[in-house]
Amino acid sequence: MDYPFLRACRRKETDYTPVWIMRQAGRYLEEYREVQKKADFMTVCKTPDLTVEVTLQPIRILGVDAAILFSDILTPVETMGLKLQFIKGKGPVLEPPVKSMQAVDRLGIPDPEDDLGFVLESIRILRKELEGKVPLIGFCGAPFTLACYMIEGETSKDYSGAKRLMFQAPHIFSALMEKITETVSIYADAQIKAGAQAIQFFDTWAGLLSRADYRKYALPYIKKAISYVKKQNKGVPVIYYVNGSSTILDLVKSAGSSVIGLDWRHDLDTAWEALGHNVAVQGNLDPCTLFLPQDQLKKRVKDILKRAGGRPGHIFNLGHGILPPTPRENAIALVEMVHQLSRKK
Ligand code: CP3
Q1: pLDDT value of residue 123
Q2: What is the domain count for the chain?
Q3: Which terminus of the chain has a lower count of CB atoms within 10 Å, N or C?
Q4: Is pTM beyond 0.90 here?
């Protein structure tokens, strides 16, 4: 089916601007919190029935134009051989953190069918559930962001531990990046083969790098992963989202994705102009504007739509993930506003 979201990824005309929300399934929905009473986060990710239920919630409640598989960027990392826990108030913890060549050597490359079969099974069920409604997006962490978590072992403000290893022991860092790149390449490919109709790479921490360091330590690997996925799956859109990409936007484009996810710091029109209109863009409302009264929120939505100028190839989204305290009625209103304000016929 020719869904508006997929048409926009390919820069084709749509009747209205398609919209979805990064982290659209999650704690801001009471339906999600209900599921969490029965099962913790990792259990939800590993139980296809629960994964499917939570993935479908925002489709039903918000009316977004795409579903995104409910999982985490760290799911494949666990199968590489690190222990993964999500600790309340702390976020993800990976043990033991990767700090030496021996630790890199010990990491395995997962076989998606054998080690991540629950993800592929969820995708197969979701495709059946979603047929004729909305397309399904699969996703992976980008290599640099996954390396940050694997080296640091936990969330950090500046990932100085990861950057320190990157600078002091570049051979260890690059060996780790090679293994991650292979993992995400085959994992993304397997998601598409199982039925995902687009793939998004999340590079949450690449904005911490200078241009020269992004070019050297992050870009070659994401470029390799994107080119692998594109070659194996002709015509399937690849979205590359980098948080904090203002200073590296031209380099981000050179990674080769068909859609570029913009964070909220960009003016969408200037960023799209700089990128060139031969690539689609996704974004970029500040997630915090969802706390505003709806009339003020509407002005922000209008502003972004105006900057996109009705040009084919804009997918409306937030500039980063939706925040847990967001009022759900504002998330619902956002989707309605985008549809209504952008409708051409
Ligand atoms: O978009 C969706 O609805 C799909 C689900 C999804 C989750 N994580 C579920 C999740 C996606 C796409 C992710 C990606 C992800 N995970 C990123 C990249 C996107 C970004 O926001 O920058 C990152 C950096 C992570 C790592 C991660 N996972 C952190 C830092 C945390 C803890 C902070 C937090 O938000 O709680 C998680 C846990 C996590 N991943 C939750 C959810 C719904 C919360 C866990 C819970 O509900 O108990």
Answers
A1: 98
A2: 1
A3: C
A4: yes
